[in-house]
Task: structure prediction
Amino acid sequence: MTELRSNLFAYGELVKNLLLGSPSNMFGEQEIKRLYKKSALFLKKLPRILAERAFLVSLALISTALILGVIVFYKYSFLAEKKEPEIKEQPLIIDEKALQELLEMQQIRRNRLDQAEFKEYNNPF
Result:
């Protein structure tokens, strides 16, 4: 446990030095390699750490899911009921030509479907 804390502290120090700037050789090759090694070591240990604390991790994931669910419910259900729909004063304008084309296409499709119902297909077996 103390080793993990010391690794996390060292990792945090490296990130802080990279972000704020260290007095000597801020983005030096050695500093980047050291940061990469510490990051790789931490990421290798992460599954084991999570597995050792499986109950706490599952509680955290369940609580996160519940919080997100409450937020989504509040936004799309509760707020949707409070908000009144906008009523537009201008009447609805229908394009008669487009409506006629749409009805013709629908009739053509309906005819094709009716023809397909009566067509007999050969049995492949």
Notes: The mean pLDDT is 82. DSSP finds four helices and no strands in the chain. Residues 2-66 form one domain. Helices lie at 2-20, 29-52, 54-82, 96-118.
